Amino acid sequence: MATSLKDLFGVDKPVIGMVHLLPLPGTPLYDESKGISGIIEAVYQDVLALQQGGVDAVLFGNEGDRPYRICAGPETVAVITRVITEMRSKLSVPFGVDVLWDPKASIAVAKATGACFVREVFTNVYAGDLGLWITNCAEVLRYRRLIDAENVKLFFNINAEFVAPLAPRPLFTVVKSVIFSSLPDAICISGPMTGQEANLSDLREAKESAGDIPVVANTGVKLDNVEAILEIADGCIVGTAFKREGITWNPVDVRRVQSFMDKVISIRSIST
């Protein structure tokens, strides 16, 4: 039986706020002068702002690790695990993990830290900014079982940012196929890159095809489009819109979060 987002997050139409880690050790933009302690402090401030603003969950991701790769190194896994562990006592909402772009690493960190979900690209073959990207969902789900992490829910990003599928199919076909063959707990629909919204027609097509599986708007959700998006989607993940001046790499602005969540609360009250 499909798990509803309300079962995970306690509300209808949940808003998951992104916690974008600063560049980690070993990446081109890592700041040695601030070190890991600087990463932890920045994450702490963003977590505080997101929770004070009223989000329903947070998702930790190494967004700063440009250029992205599809297999995380041990240093990345180690530092993300440390950062999340340092935040555990500060968290009052459920949380997830997204180690870009490595599903096994994400599940391993989730298992170690107690996260309730991961968001990743689990299916398809892509080409684009990341080079040739070949996934292996069967291996990943067997790994989840191997490490006894089946309580970690899997949010499938089925139209990954920064790339395009090598064998394009209609979105409704992809949704139905992934649900039949790959056992997702939720389907995420993205725009072409971070901060850019998905087409409403794509969200609607996915929702009409997904049956009992929740559909989540994955990118580009902001104050002026959230009402239209949540009329269709079962929830949303928000990063850039919560940042100062709406810039992805800036810290979270609690006022932007509060304004967004005030609108979401009004949307929920109307829908009920």
Query: How would you describe the shape?
Result: globular
Give, in order, the helices and strands: HEHEHEHEEEHEEHEHEHEH
Structural category: alpha/beta
End-to-end span in angstroms? 24 Å
Number of helices: 9
**Residue share in helix:** 25-40%
Largest beta-sheet characterization? 8 strands, parallel, barrel
**Which spans of ≥5 residues are poorly predicted at pLDDT below 50?**
none
Beta content comes to 15-25%
Short structural summary:
The protein is α/β, with parallel strands linked by helices. It is 38% helix and 17% strand.
Could you explain the architecture of this structure?
A hairpin with a 2-residue loop joins strand 5 (125-128) and strand 6 (131-134). The protein starts with a helix and ends with a helix. With 272 residues, the protein is of the alpha/beta class. The chain has 9 helices and 11 strands.
